[in-house]
Specification:
Blueprint (H helix, E strand, L loop, with lengths): L19 E8 L10 E9 L11 E4 L2 E5 L3 E5 L5 E4 L4 E9 L11 E6 L2 E2 L6 E5 L3 E8 L9 E9 L16 E2 L5 E5 L5 E4 L4 E9 L10 E6 L2 E2 L4 E5 L1
Length: 239
């Protein structure tokens, strides 16, 4: 009868959903989200609106400490994936500036594109993976040969990212953790010892007992920053 059926106002209404992109931060080979990473999403090239801005985007989910500027969004990953809505169409990059404690910074730049409000990808999410920190500790003689039988202890003297950080997650079958979680101890073998997951901070490596025929070495102090040490490996030499 010349009217819109079911509408008191005689109106036909069409609604558009906001664009939505999921940003996931995980440890490599694991399915759980990894909190504590400082991430930056940057609009590199808008495709619909020349002066597109990110100031009006909404960031939800596990994201914390969100700051939105003209062409960047900075946030900290949480226990669940982060959801970004109202992103303008265009090409974006995802980078990591600070890694979660016990992990190395991922220097990879992840690129993605939004077209007609949707992620242009065969995947449903934008994902970035982190590797646990890895510190190699070498126990050698003056010739550089790895020597077994030294009783070693590694103690965290100051934690830089996490107050009162524990070394419990670094323990293995051969590397034991102390009751208070502040020290790791092991017996050296004829190969380098690799410890993963060390939190950022300052450490002391001490030899409690030298192998038979050697003198106890001096204590070594070193720092882990963003999951890495200044040198490729920490070398303690026995004479």
């Amino acid at each position: 009868d010349g009217k819109v059926a079911g509408s008191e106002t005689n109106t036909v209404k069409m609604e558009d959903e906001y664009s939505s992109v999921t940003i996931s931060k995980k440890e490599i080979n694991k399915t759980e989200e990894l909190p504590g990473a400082v991430l930056t999403v940057k609009l590199e090239k808008p495709s619909k609106t020349e002066n597109a801005t990110l100031k009006n985007v909404k960031v939800s989910g596990g994201a914390n400490n969100v700051t939105a500027g003209k062409d960047t969004i900075v946030f900290t990953s949480g226990e669940t994936a982060s959801e970004i809505t109202m992103l303008p169409d265009g090409k974006y990059t995802l980078t990591e500036t600070t890694s979660p404690d016990g992990y190395t910074v991922n220097n990879e730049t992840v690129e993605f594109e939004i077209k007609d409000g949707k992620l242009v990808s065969d995947k449903e999410i934008v994902e970035m993976l982190d590797r646990p920190s890895s510190v190699k500790i070498s126990k050698t003689d003056v010739s550089g040969r790895e020597i077994p039988g030294a009783e070693l202890i590694l103690t965290i003297k100051r934690s830089d990212k996490t107050v009162g950080a524990s070394l419990e997650r670094c323990a293995t079958e051969k590397v034991k953790v102390s009751e208070d979680g502040k020290s790791l101890s092991w017996i050296s073998e004829a190969k380098i010892t690799e410890i993963t997951g060390l939190p950022d901070g300052t450490y002391e490596l001490t030899e409690l007992q030298a192998p038979d025929g050697y003198v106890i070495a001096e204590t070594i102090e070193f720092t882990v920053k963003d999951g890495k040490t200044a040198d490729e490996k920490i070398v303690m030499e026995d004479k």
